[in-house]
Amino acid sequence: MGITAPQGFERAVEKELLEQITNMRTALIYNLGAIGNRVVNIARQHHRYKDQTGNLTSSVGYVIVEDGKVVMESSFEQTRPTATEGSNKGRSFAHSLAKAYPEGITLVVVAGMNYAAYVERRGIGGMTTAEINARNAVRTLLDKLTK
Q1: Domain map of the chain by residue range?
Q2: Mind listing the pLDDT tens digit of every residue in the chain (147 residues)?
Q3: Which of 3, 23, 36, 142 has a 20 to 30 Å separation from 132 between CA atoms?
């Protein structure tokens, strides 16, 4: 004896699953944005370098990439009126890195000035602390979303 599902049942299940996937993706992007804002603030506030021009601090920001396209980004706010170079280079660098993530959802946090790595290696930048914080927060977020 066989039991047949009602007509349209498979379509209804598929529709419900797609809706749940969409809701999960939206929640993930929203929460990654909150994490991005938090770690940008950490990087901007917990450095120990002398912020002479404001460019390095202004170059710190994030983008969220979904299937290769930037769907959200920080403001790359200038910390000084003269720090347009830092803001522009940070945004440009983040967008260039976004191309490396053609599938899935990715949070990319950057310090876009060419000397940022040097400052970080000297132990006076704020990106290492920000990265550790981001990794822990994303791990916690994914645990929550998968339960």
Answers
A1: 9-146
A2: 677 778 888 888 899 999 999 999 999 999 999 999 999 999 999 999 998 999 999 999 999 999 999 999 999 999 999 999 999 999 999 999 999 999 999 999 999 999 999 999 999 999 999 999 999 999 999 998 888
A3: 23
